[in-house]
Protein backbone atom coordinates (compact mmCIF):
# COMPACT_ATOMS: atom_id res chain seq x y z
CA UNK A 1 0.00 0.00 0.00
CA UNK A 2 1.38 3.40 -1.01
CA UNK A 3 2.32 5.81 1.76
CA UNK A 4 0.22 8.93 2.30
CA UNK A 5 1.77 12.03 0.74
CA UNK A 6 2.95 14.60 3.34
CA UNK A 7 3.12 18.26 2.31
CA UNK A 8 6.13 19.24 4.45
CA UNK A 9 8.72 17.12 6.26
CA UNK A 10 9.52 19.96 8.66
CA UNK A 11 7.85 22.96 10.25
CA UNK A 12 8.16 25.84 7.73
CA UNK A 13 9.92 28.88 9.21
CA UNK A 14 7.81 32.01 9.61
CA UNK A 15 10.88 34.24 10.03
CA UNK A 16 12.71 33.01 6.93
CA UNK A 17 9.59 33.30 4.78
CA UNK A 18 9.04 36.86 6.02
CA UNK A 19 12.67 37.83 5.31
CA UNK A 20 12.49 36.65 1.70
CA UNK A 21 9.07 38.22 1.14
CA UNK A 22 10.71 41.48 2.21
CA UNK A 23 13.79 40.97 0.02
CA UNK A 24 11.93 39.93 -3.12
CA UNK A 25 9.34 42.69 -2.61
CA UNK A 26 12.05 45.34 -2.48
CA UNK A 27 13.88 43.80 -5.41
CA UNK A 28 10.68 43.69 -7.47
CA UNK A 29 9.83 47.31 -6.62
CA UNK A 30 13.31 48.37 -7.74
CA UNK A 31 12.94 46.51 -11.04
CA UNK A 32 9.43 47.90 -11.58
CA UNK A 33 10.89 51.39 -11.14
CA UNK A 34 13.74 50.71 -13.60
CA UNK A 35 11.35 49.24 -16.17
CA UNK A 36 9.06 52.26 -15.95
CA UNK A 37 11.85 54.84 -15.85
CA UNK A 38 13.89 53.40 -18.72
CA UNK A 39 11.00 51.81 -20.63
CA UNK A 40 12.81 48.46 -20.66
CA UNK A 41 9.64 46.48 -21.31
CA UNK A 42 11.61 43.45 -22.47
CA UNK A 43 12.55 43.02 -18.79
CA UNK A 44 8.93 42.52 -17.68
CA UNK A 45 9.32 38.70 -17.42
CA UNK A 46 12.06 39.35 -14.86
CA UNK A 47 9.68 41.47 -12.78
CA UNK A 48 6.97 38.81 -13.05
CA UNK A 49 9.53 36.28 -11.82
CA UNK A 50 10.10 38.48 -8.78
CA UNK A 51 6.35 38.60 -8.15
CA UNK A 52 6.23 34.80 -8.41
CA UNK A 53 8.90 34.63 -5.70
CA UNK A 54 6.89 36.95 -3.43
CA UNK A 55 3.75 34.86 -3.88
CA UNK A 56 5.73 31.66 -3.32
CA UNK A 57 7.23 32.75 -0.03
CA UNK A 58 3.89 34.21 1.03
CA UNK A 59 2.56 30.67 0.58
CA UNK A 60 5.33 29.35 2.81
CA UNK A 61 4.55 32.05 5.38
CA UNK A 62 0.89 31.00 5.45
CA UNK A 63 1.87 27.34 5.78
CA UNK A 64 4.19 28.20 8.67
CA UNK A 65 1.20 29.60 10.56
CA UNK A 66 -0.86 26.44 9.96
CA UNK A 67 1.57 23.80 11.29
CA UNK A 68 0.81 20.93 11.60
CA UNK A 69 -2.60 21.20 9.90
CA UNK A 70 -1.42 22.53 6.56
CA UNK A 71 -3.98 23.51 3.95
CA UNK A 72 -3.21 22.39 0.40
CA UNK A 73 -3.59 25.72 -1.39
CA UNK A 74 -0.66 27.59 0.30
CA UNK A 75 1.54 24.55 -0.39
CA UNK A 76 0.49 24.57 -4.05
CA UNK A 77 1.12 28.33 -4.21
CA UNK A 78 4.64 28.12 -2.82
CA UNK A 79 5.54 24.97 -4.72
CA UNK A 80 4.59 26.28 -8.17
CA UNK A 81 5.64 29.92 -7.82
CA UNK A 82 9.09 29.24 -6.38
CA UNK A 83 9.66 26.46 -8.89
CA UNK A 84 8.71 28.53 -11.94
CA UNK A 85 10.14 31.99 -11.09
CA UNK A 86 13.71 31.30 -12.36
CA UNK A 87 12.34 30.43 -15.80
CA UNK A 88 11.10 34.01 -16.10
CA UNK A 89 14.45 35.37 -14.91
CA UNK A 90 16.15 33.28 -17.58
CA UNK A 91 13.86 34.58 -20.33
CA UNK A 92 14.94 38.17 -19.66
CA UNK A 93 18.61 37.17 -19.52
CA UNK A 94 18.28 35.66 -23.01
CA UNK A 95 16.79 38.92 -24.28
CA UNK A 96 19.63 40.97 -22.78
CA UNK A 97 22.30 39.10 -24.77
CA UNK A 98 20.41 39.54 -28.05
CA UNK A 99 20.05 43.27 -27.47
CA UNK A 100 23.69 43.70 -26.48
CA UNK A 101 24.74 42.05 -29.74
CA UNK A 102 22.54 44.51 -31.65
CA UNK A 103 23.83 47.53 -29.68
CA UNK A 104 27.45 46.76 -30.59
CA UNK A 105 26.51 45.92 -34.19
CA UNK A 106 28.03 42.44 -33.96
CA UNK A 107 25.35 40.20 -35.44
CA UNK A 108 27.96 38.48 -37.61
CA UNK A 109 29.84 37.37 -34.47
CA UNK A 110 26.93 35.48 -32.93
CA UNK A 111 27.01 31.68 -33.33
CA UNK A 112 23.20 31.79 -33.62
CA UNK A 113 21.41 34.31 -35.83
CA UNK A 114 20.36 37.17 -33.55
CA UNK A 115 16.79 37.07 -34.89
CA UNK A 116 16.58 33.48 -33.64
CA UNK A 117 18.74 33.75 -30.52
CA UNK A 118 16.03 34.90 -28.10
CA UNK A 119 13.29 32.87 -29.81
CA UNK A 120 15.15 29.57 -29.48
CA UNK A 121 16.03 29.96 -25.82
CA UNK A 122 12.69 31.45 -24.78
CA UNK A 123 10.98 28.54 -26.58
CA UNK A 124 13.05 26.18 -24.44
CA UNK A 125 11.98 28.14 -21.37
CA UNK A 126 8.32 27.89 -22.35
CA UNK A 127 8.59 24.11 -22.77
CA UNK A 128 10.36 23.84 -19.41
CA UNK A 129 7.74 26.10 -17.80
CA UNK A 130 4.80 23.95 -18.84
CA UNK A 131 6.55 20.66 -18.03
CA UNK A 132 7.49 21.86 -14.55
CA UNK A 133 4.03 23.36 -14.01
CA UNK A 134 2.47 20.02 -14.96
CA UNK A 135 4.76 18.18 -12.54
CA UNK A 136 4.01 20.69 -9.79
CA UNK A 137 0.30 20.24 -10.38
CA UNK A 138 0.66 16.47 -10.13
CA UNK A 139 2.48 16.76 -6.79
CA UNK A 140 -0.09 19.22 -5.49
CA UNK A 141 -2.90 16.77 -6.24
CA UNK A 142 -0.97 13.70 -5.07
CA UNK A 143 -2.88 11.34 -2.78
CA UNK A 144 0.12 9.12 -2.02
CA UNK A 145 3.89 8.91 -2.44
CA UNK A 146 3.62 7.13 -5.79
CA UNK A 147 1.62 10.01 -7.26
CA UNK A 148 4.12 12.50 -5.83
CA UNK A 149 7.09 10.59 -7.28
CA UNK A 150 5.52 10.67 -10.73
CA UNK A 151 5.15 14.45 -10.44
CA UNK A 152 8.76 14.70 -9.25
CA UNK A 153 9.96 12.83 -12.36
CA UNK A 154 8.04 15.25 -14.58
CA UNK A 155 9.60 18.22 -12.75
CA UNK A 156 13.07 16.70 -13.13
CA UNK A 157 12.44 16.45 -16.89
CA UNK A 158 11.45 20.12 -17.01
CA UNK A 159 14.49 21.17 -14.98
CA UNK A 160 16.83 19.18 -17.23
CA UNK A 161 15.28 20.84 -20.31
CA UNK A 162 15.99 24.22 -18.74
CA UNK A 163 19.55 23.20 -17.82
CA UNK A 164 20.25 22.05 -21.39
CA UNK A 165 18.96 25.27 -22.94
CA UNK A 166 20.75 27.40 -20.36
CA UNK A 167 23.98 25.51 -20.97
CA UNK A 168 23.66 26.18 -24.71
CA UNK A 169 22.97 29.84 -23.95
CA UNK A 170 26.16 30.15 -21.89
CA UNK A 171 28.12 28.57 -24.76
CA UNK A 172 26.54 31.03 -27.23
CA UNK A 173 27.36 33.98 -24.93
CA UNK A 174 30.96 32.78 -24.45
CA UNK A 175 31.55 32.26 -28.19
CA UNK A 176 30.22 35.76 -28.92
CA UNK A 177 32.40 37.19 -26.15
CA UNK A 178 35.56 35.56 -27.53
CA UNK A 179 34.79 36.75 -31.04
CA UNK A 180 34.09 40.35 -29.98
CA UNK A 181 37.38 40.42 -28.03
CA UNK A 182 39.31 39.14 -31.06
CA UNK A 183 37.53 41.36 -33.60
CA UNK A 184 35.79 44.26 -31.80
CA UNK A 185 33.40 46.38 -33.81
CA UNK A 186 33.66 50.15 -33.67
CA UNK A 187 30.52 50.33 -31.57
CA UNK A 188 31.83 47.64 -29.22
CA UNK A 189 35.00 49.66 -28.65
CA UNK A 190 32.88 52.70 -27.85
CA UNK A 191 31.34 50.87 -24.89
CA UNK A 192 34.10 48.36 -24.17
CA UNK A 193 34.10 48.74 -20.39
CA UNK A 194 30.32 48.38 -20.13
CA UNK A 195 30.32 45.47 -22.56
CA UNK A 196 32.83 43.53 -20.46
CA UNK A 197 30.90 44.29 -17.28
CA UNK A 198 27.61 43.06 -18.69
CA UNK A 199 29.07 39.89 -20.15
CA UNK A 200 30.43 39.07 -16.68
CA UNK A 201 27.02 39.87 -15.18
CA UNK A 202 25.38 37.47 -17.67
CA UNK A 203 27.87 34.74 -16.72
CA UNK A 204 27.30 35.32 -13.00
CA UNK A 205 23.51 35.26 -13.31
CA UNK A 206 23.70 32.16 -15.51
CA UNK A 207 25.90 30.38 -12.96
CA UNK A 208 23.46 31.21 -10.14
CA UNK A 209 20.45 29.88 -12.09
CA UNK A 210 22.31 26.76 -13.24
CA UNK A 211 23.42 26.07 -9.64
CA UNK A 212 19.84 26.50 -8.43
CA UNK A 213 18.47 24.19 -11.12
CA UNK A 214 21.12 21.56 -10.36
CA UNK A 215 20.09 21.72 -6.69
CA UNK A 216 16.46 21.21 -7.67
CA UNK A 217 17.29 18.25 -9.90
CA UNK A 218 19.23 16.58 -7.08
CA UNK A 219 16.44 17.44 -4.62
CA UNK A 220 13.75 15.75 -6.72
CA UNK A 221 15.98 12.78 -7.58
CA UNK A 222 16.49 12.17 -3.85
CA UNK A 223 12.72 12.41 -3.35
CA UNK A 224 10.65 13.26 -0.30
CA UNK A 225 12.83 11.12 1.99
CA UNK A 226 16.08 12.71 0.83
CA UNK A 227 18.27 15.15 2.72
CA UNK A 228 17.36 18.18 0.60
CA UNK A 229 13.58 17.84 0.99
CA UNK A 230 13.72 16.86 4.63
CA UNK A 231 15.46 20.07 5.82
CA UNK A 232 14.12 23.52 5.02
CA UNK A 233 17.49 25.29 5.15
CA UNK A 234 18.52 23.89 1.75
CA UNK A 235 15.74 25.63 -0.21
CA UNK A 236 16.71 28.95 1.36
CA UNK A 237 20.42 28.46 0.68
CA UNK A 238 20.29 27.05 -2.85
CA UNK A 239 17.06 28.58 -4.18
CA UNK A 240 15.89 31.68 -2.32
CA UNK A 241 19.34 33.19 -1.76
CA UNK A 242 20.64 32.42 -5.26
CA UNK A 243 17.55 33.87 -6.93
CA UNK A 244 17.68 37.01 -4.81
CA UNK A 245 21.32 37.45 -5.85
CA UNK A 246 20.17 37.30 -9.49
CA UNK A 247 17.68 40.09 -8.78
CA UNK A 248 20.36 42.08 -6.97
CA UNK A 249 22.86 41.68 -9.81
CA UNK A 250 20.46 43.16 -12.35
CA UNK A 251 19.40 45.90 -9.96
CA UNK A 252 23.03 47.03 -9.61
CA UNK A 253 23.90 46.44 -13.28
CA UNK A 254 20.53 47.12 -14.86
CA UNK A 255 20.55 46.51 -18.65
CA UNK A 256 19.30 50.05 -19.29
CA UNK A 257 22.88 51.23 -18.74
CA UNK A 258 23.95 49.58 -21.99
CA UNK A 259 20.61 48.99 -23.76
CA UNK A 260 18.18 51.82 -24.47
CA UNK A 261 14.59 51.19 -25.54
CA UNK A 262 14.64 52.89 -28.94
CA UNK A 263 18.23 53.30 -30.14
CA UNK A 264 19.16 49.70 -30.90
CA UNK A 265 17.59 49.70 -34.36
CA UNK A 266 19.07 53.14 -35.13
CA UNK A 267 22.58 51.98 -34.21
CA UNK A 268 23.20 55.05 -32.05
CA UNK A 269 25.59 53.68 -29.42
CA UNK A 270 25.83 56.83 -27.34
CA UNK A 271 22.05 57.00 -26.98
CA UNK A 272 21.75 53.24 -26.58
CA UNK A 273 24.03 53.29 -23.57
CA UNK A 274 22.80 56.60 -22.26
CA UNK A 275 26.43 57.36 -21.47
CA UNK A 276 28.10 60.01 -23.62
CA UNK A 277 30.78 60.50 -20.99
CA UNK A 278 31.70 56.82 -21.16
CA UNK A 279 32.13 57.06 -24.94
CA UNK A 280 34.22 60.23 -24.61
CA UNK A 281 36.40 58.62 -21.95
CA UNK A 282 36.93 55.63 -24.19
CA UNK A 283 37.91 57.74 -27.19
CA UNK A 284 40.42 59.75 -25.17
CA UNK A 285 42.06 57.06 -23.09
CA UNK A 286 40.99 53.48 -23.42
CA UNK A 287 41.80 53.12 -27.12
CA UNK A 288 45.36 54.22 -26.42
CA UNK A 289 45.61 51.70 -23.59
CA UNK A 290 44.40 48.86 -25.82
CA UNK A 291 46.82 49.86 -28.60
CA UNK A 292 49.78 50.05 -26.24
CA UNK A 293 48.92 46.66 -24.76
CA UNK A 294 49.09 45.15 -28.23
Automatic annotation (TrEMBL):
<feature type="transmembrane region" description="Helical">
    <location>
        <begin position="116"/>
        <end position="134"/>
    </location>
</feature>
<dbReference type="InterPro" id="IPR007568">
    <property type="entry name" value="RTA1"/>
</dbReference>
<protein>
    <submittedName>
        <fullName>RTA1 like protein-domain-containing protein</fullName>
    </submittedName>
</protein>
<feature type="transmembrane region" description="Helical">
    <location>
        <begin position="233"/>
        <end position="253"/>
    </location>
</feature>
<feature type="transmembrane region" description="Helical">
    <location>
        <begin position="154"/>
        <end position="178"/>
    </location>
</feature>
<feature type="transmembrane region" description="Helical">
    <location>
        <begin position="75"/>
        <end position="96"/>
    </location>
</feature>
<keyword id="KW-0472">Membrane</keyword>
<keyword id="KW-0812">Transmembrane</keyword>
<feature type="transmembrane region" description="Helical">
    <location>
        <begin position="43"/>
        <end position="63"/>
    </location>
</feature>
<keyword id="KW-1133">Transmembrane helix</keyword>
<feature type="transmembrane region" description="Helical">
    <location>
        <begin position="190"/>
        <end position="213"/>
    </location>
</feature>
<feature type="transmembrane region" description="Helical">
    <location>
        <begin position="15"/>
        <end position="36"/>
    </location>
</feature>
<dbReference type="Pfam" id="PF04479">
    <property type="entry name" value="RTA1"/>
</dbReference>
Amino acid sequence: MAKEFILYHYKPSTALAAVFIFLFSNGSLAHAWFIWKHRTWYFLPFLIGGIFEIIGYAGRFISSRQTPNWATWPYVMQSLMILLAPILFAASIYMVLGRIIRVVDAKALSMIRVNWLTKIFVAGDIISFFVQAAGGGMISNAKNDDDAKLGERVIITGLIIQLVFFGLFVIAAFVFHLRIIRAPTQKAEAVWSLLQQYMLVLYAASFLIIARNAFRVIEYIQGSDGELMSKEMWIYIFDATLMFLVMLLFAIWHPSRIINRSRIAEGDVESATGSHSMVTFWKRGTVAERQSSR
